[in-house]
Amino acid sequence: MNSTLLLNAFTGATSGPKLMGIDVVWVGTVLAAVGVGAVLVALYGALTVRDPMAKRVKALNERREQLKAGITASTAKRRAKLVRKNQTADKMRTFLGKLQVLQEDQIKDVQQKLAQAGIRSKDLAVAVIFGRLIMPILLGGLAAFLIYGLDMWPDMTPFKRAGALMTALILGYKAPDLFVQNKRTKRTDAVRKGLPDALDLLVICAEAGLTVDAAFSRVAKELGRAYPELGEEFALTSIELGFLTERRQAFENLAYRVNLDSVKGVVTTMIQTEKYGTPLASALRVLSAEFRNERMMRAEEKAARLPAIMTVPLILFILPVLFIVILGPAACSLKDALGGAMSGGG
Predict the structure, then answer these.
(1) HSE (CB half, 13 Å, CA atoms) of 188?
(2) Which residues fall within 8 angstroms of residue 165, CB to CB, at 6 or more apart?
(3) Contacts with 195 (C-beta within 8 Å, 6 or more apart), sequence order
(4) Which residue, 6, 110, 149, 193, could crosslink 145 as a Cys pair with Cβ 3.0–4.6 Å?
(5) Phi-psi region of 18 (alpha: psi -120 to 50; beta: other; left: phi over 0)
(6) Is the pLDDT at 133 greater than 80, yes or no?
């Protein structure tokens, strides 16, 4: 019986029960296929976990060896790639300089935001500023061509047309900043989640007698799989502690790359420890407790907001599906019974 229903559903036969003109068996088959596909995708993602830190740490270690040896580019291919990037950035810099829209303070601000977003290239700061200038022209010109030139929406009022054009111009101007801000926010949240665990591991490493750079390297290795962003920052700090002449600069670079007040507090603690020789483990233990309490408070705040946030999805998506699941079989049975009674009476 089941095989017959499935065959009828795939061949388009109308022998199966229907609800609101839709074949129930066909819909169930499609949903089952989607569920099986989702399960297969989840199993594939769970069984093929890759270490996100391996490639980045390898590149950072190669860069450290190059800096120690005084090498700026290891191969001719990499050198040519860097030259092409520098030439493109120089052209954009020259163009913006002629228009007198390029300021050093603006470049430094964009460079810091890019660093906090995990983008290491400083030349992209010029590209972001260049995008602010070019994107409004491109999107605004495209919108004007579609709205006024081709007249794709003839029913739009002049006010709506002007509003659509202004929206395209504003979106074009803000698109580069929105892209950078989105990556920056996601990276900051990922670092914030793993910071208390990282401080706990730093305390353990300090009490075990490891040096600061060795402790950072060990924490980066242990947390690289769970928190790849934080592991990357700690690995880079460990490498900078190994070759920079001033260790203070390595800690300040960490605070420069991460947009978190808690990281700035850790950096201040590390600098004071290096300068005055205060106990590192006790100070980090206090900071770890504070950050863990802060994380718990944020989780409780999100949990308190959850009922209000879930009200709209519950009404729009969950309750209709629940009614269909509960009342659907009863409606089908009632329809079949009424149909049989009418045919019998006829």
Answers:
(1) 21
(2) 140, 143, 144, 147
(3) 230, 260, 262, 263, 266, 291
(4) 149
(5) beta
(6) yes
Mean pLDDT over residues 153-170, rounded? Answer: 85
Six-digit token pair at 225? 């799989």
176 vs 105, 116, 140, CA distance in Å?
Answer: 18, 15, 15
- Separation of alpha carbons 132 and 101, rounded Å: 11
Q: Which residues, in sequence order, are bridge partners of residue 22?
A: 19
CA angle 271, 272, 273 (to 5 degrees): 90
How far, in Å, CA of 210 to CA of 273, rounded?
15
Tell me the mean pLDDT in the region 110-119.
Answer: 86
Give the C-alpha distances (Å, rounded to integers) separating 110 from 84, 173, 178: 22, 15, 12
Task: Give CA–CA dist 308/339, Å, rounded.
Answer: 44
pLDDT tens across 84-114, in order?
556 776 777 777 777 777 777 888 888 888 8
Cα 221–224–226 angle (5° rounding)? 130
- What is the residue whose two structure tokens read 């300021």? 103
Q: Cα–Cα distance between 346 and 29 in angstroms, integer?
A: 35
Question: Which residues, at least 6 apart from 1, have a Cβ–Cβ distance to it below 8 Å?
Answer: none
Say if CB 214 and CB 38 are below 8 A apart: no
The C-alpha atoms of residue 21 and residue 18 are separated, in whole angstroms, by: 6
Q: What angle do CA 182, 145, 99 make, to 5 degrees?
A: 60
Sequence-ordered list of residues with C-beta below 8 angstroms from that of 181, at least 6 positions apart, any chain: 113
Return phi, psi of residue 228, to 5°: -65, -35
Note the pLDDT tens digit of each residue in 238-258: 888 888 888 888 888 888 988
Phi (first) and psi of residue 18, to 5 degrees: -125, 150
Measured distance CA(252)–CA(270) in Å, rounded = 10
Q: Could you tell me if 52 and 224 are in contact, meaning their C-beta atoms sit under 8 angstroms apart?
A: yes
Reading the block at residue 80, the tokens are 């040519």
Q: Are 214 and 249 in contact (CB under 8 A)?
A: no
In this structure, what are the phi and psi dihedrals at residue 227, rounded to the nearest 5 degrees?
-130, 80
